[in-house]
Amino acid sequence: xxxxxxxxxxxxxxxxxxxxxxxxxxxxxxxxxxxxxxxxxxxxxxxxxxxxxxxxxxxxxxxxxxxxxxxxxxxxxxxxxxxxxxxxxxxxxxxxxxxxxxxxxxxxxxxx
Amino acid sequence: xxxxxxxxxxxxxxxxxxxxxxxxxxxxxxxxxxxxxxxxxxxxxxxxxxxxxxxxxxxxxxxxxxxxxxxxxxxxxxxxxxxxxxxxxxxxxxxxxxxxxxxxxxxxxxxxxx
Lengths: 112, 114
What we know:
The structure holds two protein chains of two kinds.
Chain A (H helix, E strand, L loop, with lengths): L2 E3 L4 E5 L4 E3 L2 E3 L5 E7 L5 E7 L5 E3 L5 E5 L4 E6 L8 E8 L5 E3 L3 E6 L1
Parallel strand pairs in A: 2-12
Antiparallel strand pairs in A: 1-4, 3-9, 5-6, 5-10, 7-8, 8-9, 10-11, 10-12
Chain B lengths: L3 E4 L2 E4 L5 E7 L5 E8 L3 E10 L2 E4 L6 E3 L9 E3 L8 E8 L9 E2 L3 E5 L1
Parallel strand pairs in B: 2-11
Antiparallel strand pairs in B: 1-3, 3-8, 4-5, 4-9, 5-6, 7-8, 9-10, 9-11
């Protein structure tokens, strides 16, 4: 069965600094990978997705992610964070018929 | 605008009562899902339906029930058998089996048991 690990429960970053959120997955075939963002009390919004092709994918709000098959990773990056980026971030993998499998999330805190 | 509507956004329930959470989508999506979210637990799949009049249990189906009588509707009932129902519930949908798997989410319903 597929699984997703987000090693960092909380990450604190200063406003304007760069960001990298880690995601490792376990899946037997070529994965479909996703990053979602969730503001408090809200639903999830898709930031970006990877299916095939270029391993560096661009998303909304200035985010990008790189798929590395050799490391089973799909890390999310942003060159310069804004206070509005404070939120919960979820990595997910598609496998089987039952939707997506999600990691437990990383809570991003932005320091002024 | 197309999207997924969940209601109510907040719901309070006494122990022993059943409650039903509504989920309606006008995206013409075939598949619909219910997830439960608890702090530090991520999202866990309760039930899903890939077609009208058919649904499957997810990882934590005990104490929950669903129906899929219409393509656009997938209500979730939290029964009195669910021992710890206080949580944030998210409904999602996606196009049919040929899709790339991206889920579209509603805004969620927060259930609190008093």
